[in-house]
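SEVERITY: medium
COMPONENT: batch folding queue
REPORTER: lab tech (J.R.)

DESCRIPTION
The queue accepted two submissions in a row. Attaching both inputs and their returned structure tokens so the on-call engineer can compare them side by side.

ATTACHMENT 1
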Amino acid sequence: MLDPYFKEKDFTLYHGNAIEILDQFEKEKFDLIFADPPYFLSNDGITCQSGKMVSVNKGEWDKSKGFDDDIEFT
């Protein structure tokens, strides 16, 4: 069983990969699931922010591994 990341009397927060950890809990256990999946937008793009060109790369975890892998992920 996964240890809570944060806990109070009526609130428990778990931190992890939802795909990997949700099977550890009984069905209908949660009132809310907040998931922030990779959007595969970090492909060496740039944007303009405050008049400066900046990278939009968030890291390797957010880079596309190709169409087929992206579709399989979803």
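ATTACHMENT 2
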Amino acid sequence: MSKTSKLRAGAAQVDITPEKGIQIAGDVSRPRPVETVEDQIFARALVLESDGRKVCLVTLDLCFAKDPCVAQIRQDAAKATGIAPEAIMLHSTHTHGAPALGSAVAEKDFPCITDDLWWLCGDERYNRWAVPQIVEAIRQANANLQPASIGWGSGMEGRVAFNRRFVMRDGTVRTHPRTCDPQILHVEGPIDPEVGVIAVKGGDGRMIATLLHFSCHPTHEYPQRYITAGWPGAWAKGVRELCGEACVPLVLNGCSGNVHHHHHLDPTHDADHRVIGKRLTEDVEKILAEITFVDAADLDRRDVRLSIPMRRMSPERLAETRQYLRDHPEPPWNRDYNMIEWEWAYAVSRLGLHERAEKSPNVDCEIQAFRIGGAAVVGLPGELFVEGQLAIKLGSPFYPIYAGGNSNSHVGYVPTRRAFEGGGYETDLGNWSKLVPEALEMMSDAAIAMLKEMKEGVPNNDK
């Protein structure tokens, strides 16, 4: 390998806080128009350049982002900066207190979706406004390129995130059981306690960006009608206060499909997003004190698209679903909670998926990886269970390796094979959980293969 080239870096953040009336995402069947704003939400971009090669990391305080918005952002940013679309990673922190670019519930061509149910399909008004704002963040970050130094480090945090799936005494699995329910037998799975930091300083020694990694579902005070960035926003705010106003703090939320901030075995646990942000910021302060910075770093990237099959309904379930929607062509409402009954939302989603699968049975899933010196970052397209992230970390030739779920798309929950045996919310077929049980292994295996290619120096001539 040739001598490592000097690093340049640039970062920027742009406000993407929606106006009143925009639909907040993160709910299966409830309209949630914005009423107030608790904290602003941002698009944050970090561009790194070495030896003529650029990569761009973008974090969004959104529930998720999908095509066509993701493709549009990449294309427009490429025109504005010259950065290849495949070199841009768009990660959403998955806060349930913000909009999404796209929908996880229904699409406009799904059955029974009438004009008055538009909010089940996302909010086009926000999409049209937010896309150019995100492109502007990338443009500004690229314009801010300057000589830089970089370093990384990790710590452990076991006080704020917990596996949310429990095996019950009857052998079933329940997501979010009643706190200290005596029918709980044991927690089904692990968490990932790693707190990761990639820190970037400018030529004057000031911190210009931090890439912060932790893994936890942000659903604070849901189903509120105010905008909040949740614990990722509180963490970003705390780190900016720690490192200075010149610092752009990007949060890469890991694979947390089965990890949450509520402690179901401790009724005294404080899950307030500000408490979580404060504890993680304290962790970052300790990590930064141990980081060694270097002014050169090799950059590389890989991108692969997997074609993963969808699960299908049995003929009996399909017939039942069709009959239910014939009997209920319009949604029954639960007026106590101002929401459509879940049975109707599931039926519409399942029948819509069936009709799509008849035409195209597979889902395009993009897996993306960046090498940044001795560290690496992986982007994965949905709510993967944390076991997938842990498998990538075990198989990676890089350390540290930080994985981000909800990157470049949202293909729904991606549970373990074992989770399908126990059942539970994340495994119930719908537009938010549709891939075959082996999907998690397919994604983690693809990520590990790309990381090994980069470590072995397999050429990638597309700069």
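NOTES FROM REPORTER
The two ends are 16 Å apart (CA to CA).
No errors were logged for either attachment.
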